[in-house]
Structure formats: structure tokens, C-alpha cells
Design a protein that fits this description.
The protein has 276 residues and is an all-alpha fold. Helix content is 76%, strand content 0%. It is built from eleven helices and no strands. Helix 4 crosses helix 10 (212-225) and helix 6 (105-134) crosses helix 7 (142-170). The longest helix is centred in the first third of the chain and has 31 residues, at 62-92. The mean pLDDT is 85.
């Protein structure tokens, strides 16, 4: 028998954490790629890109400019693996057993999601430490670093929900991996991650304005620099960094709720007879 919603969340939280510990390869791979990006981009493009990000005046180093984008990339890469883990459960028959149990479907998703969010928070923290060692500067120190980790967590939820939706629709590990990776890199490069919006080609600017990754990066970058960096939506009702954080977090929260609800709905709709 189920012992309640919170117990279901806890049981699934523990199970997914144990699964991650027993398969550290996934953790290493999802962290390795952003680290390579951070080192290569700062070393290869740092000189050229520094001129572009300081065209209007200023003395921001490319390391400081890039670290928030890499932090969001870590969250994105880690969220991709969420659906892959679910497909593994489906293929191993574990998902069928969970569906046959009285566990609350929302508790199943939330327990899985919180375990993955803990992992993402740790990985974003590692990137911030590494970025600082490479020369990046976080304007507000440790409180700002914690805020960037929080932004990474809020950002990752929508893609985690989307990844689980893909997994539940395809029920195939290969298809889930391909679909997630096909979206991951265009979303990252067609954003303000590596260059300011006004330095991008016209059509890329248009895509970037509708790209959720842009809002995650702008929010993290605003905290990193300690000032308003929102270039997509002009907001002046608040002060300083909040003119970026309020609209960016509002958009990400709406996406989190939409894709999270879709994932919970599909888990609830699934039946043991439809699980292959």
C-alpha cells in the first residue's frame, strides 16, 4: 500500500539517486561535455568574443560572460538523461511494476525529478568553481553562486519534463536519445549563450528571442554580472538584476508547469497493457 504522496516522492527520490550512484558514467558524460566547451571556447574564441561583448564599453572577460551559459548547458545536458532513465525502466519492466502499484503518479514524477535536480545543482556548482578557477568573476560571491544554481534547477525542469514526454511517447531509448540531442545543440547555439543578441545574425536573433535557453542564460548572466542583462524583453518596472530575473523566471516557470503537467498526465494515462 502507498503511505501517501510524500512517501511516494521519497521512495522514488532514493531509488533514482541510488541508480545514479551505481551508474556514474552518465554523470561524468553529462558534465564532461560542458567542461570541454568551457575550456575550448574561452581559450580559442576568448580573444575575438571579448571584443564583441564589450562593444558598448565595459571590461567583462569572456570567462565571466561564458560561465552562465555553460552552467545552463550542464542543466540542459543533465535534463536530457531524464527521459533516457525512464525508457530504461520501461524496457526493464520496472515502470510496469510501478504502474501496478498504488503510488501517486505525481509522486513518481516528482521523486524522480527531485533526484535529478539534486544532481544538476551539484553539477552547476562544479562548473561555477571551475569557471572561477579559470578567471571568471561572480559579482555577488557565494549568494550569487547559489542563485545561479537555483536558476539552473528552475531552467532544467521544463526540459526534463519534455524529455520524459518524449520517452513516454516513443518508449524507445534510441529514439529518446536522438530526439533529445537533436534539440539540445540547436537550442544552445541559437541563443545568447556565446555572443550578445545584437552580435548574432538577424534570423538567429529571431530564433533566440523565442528560445527558452536564452531566458535561462540571461537570468544566470544577470546574477553573474550583478546587473540587468535582458536583451529580449524590455522590462523597467523593477530595479537592476530583477528586470532580468522576473520576466525570465516567469517564462521558465510557465514552461516547467506545462511540460511537468504533460509528463505527469502521460504517466497517469499509461497502463500496464500498453507498456511494451
Amino acid at each position: 500500500m502507498s503511505n501517501g504522496f510524500l512517501w511516494d516522492v521519497w521512495v522514488n527520490f532514493k531509488r533514482w539517486n541510488l541508480k545514479a550512484v551505481r551508474n556514474p558514467f552518465v554523470l561524468v558524460v553529462s558534465l564532461a561535455q560542458p567542461i570541454i566547451f568551457l575550456v575550448l571556447f574561452t581559450q580559442v574564441f576568448g580573444g575575438v568574443a571579448t571584443g564583441a561583448i564589450n562593444r558598448g564599453g565595459g571590461s567583462i572577460t569572456y570567462e565571466t560572460y561564458l560561465v552562465p551559459a555553460i552552467a545552463i548547458q550542464v542543466a540542459l545536458a543533465a535534463a536530457v538523461t531524464s527521459g533516457i532513465g525512464l525508457v530504461e525502466d520501461i524496457e526493464e519492466g520496472i515502470f510496469e511494476k510501478i504502474l501496478a502499484s498504488p503510488m501517486h503518479r505525481g509522486g513518481v514524477f516528482l521523486g524522480k525529478a527531485t533526484a535529478e535536480l539534486l544532481r544538476i545543482a551539484v553539477q552547476v556548482g562544479i562548473i561555477l568553481v571551475l569557471g572561477t578557477l579559470l578567471g571568471a568573476s561572480i559579482a555577488g560571491g557565494i549568494p550569487s553562486a547559489l542563485a545561479i544554481i537555483g536558476i539552473g534547477v528552475v531552467f532544467s525542469l521544463w526540459f526534463m519534463g519534455l524529455s520524459n514526454v518524449i520517452a513516454l511517447v516513443t518508449r524507445d531509448q534510441e529514439s529518446t536519445i536522438i530526439a533529445s540531442n537533436v534539440m539540445q545543440f540547436p537550442l544552445l547555439f541559437l541563443s545568447t549563450g556565446f555572443l550578445p543578441l545584437d552580435a548574432l545574425p538577424g534570423w538567429v536573433q529571431t530564433v533566440a528571442k523565442y528560445n527558452p535557453v536564452t531566458y535561462g542564460i540571461d537570468a544566470a548572466r544577470a546574477v553573474m554580472l550583478g546587473r540587468d542583462t535582458m536583451t529580449v524583453i524590455e522590462v523597467t518596472q523593477f530595479t537592476g538584476v530583477w528586470n532580468t530575473l522576473v520576466p525570465a523566471l516567469a517564462i521558465l516557470t510557465v514552461l516547467d508547469l506545462a511540460f511537468g503537467a504533460a509528463a505527469v498526465y502521460l504517466i497517469g494515462r499509461a497502463s500496464s497493457s500498453s507498456v511494451s
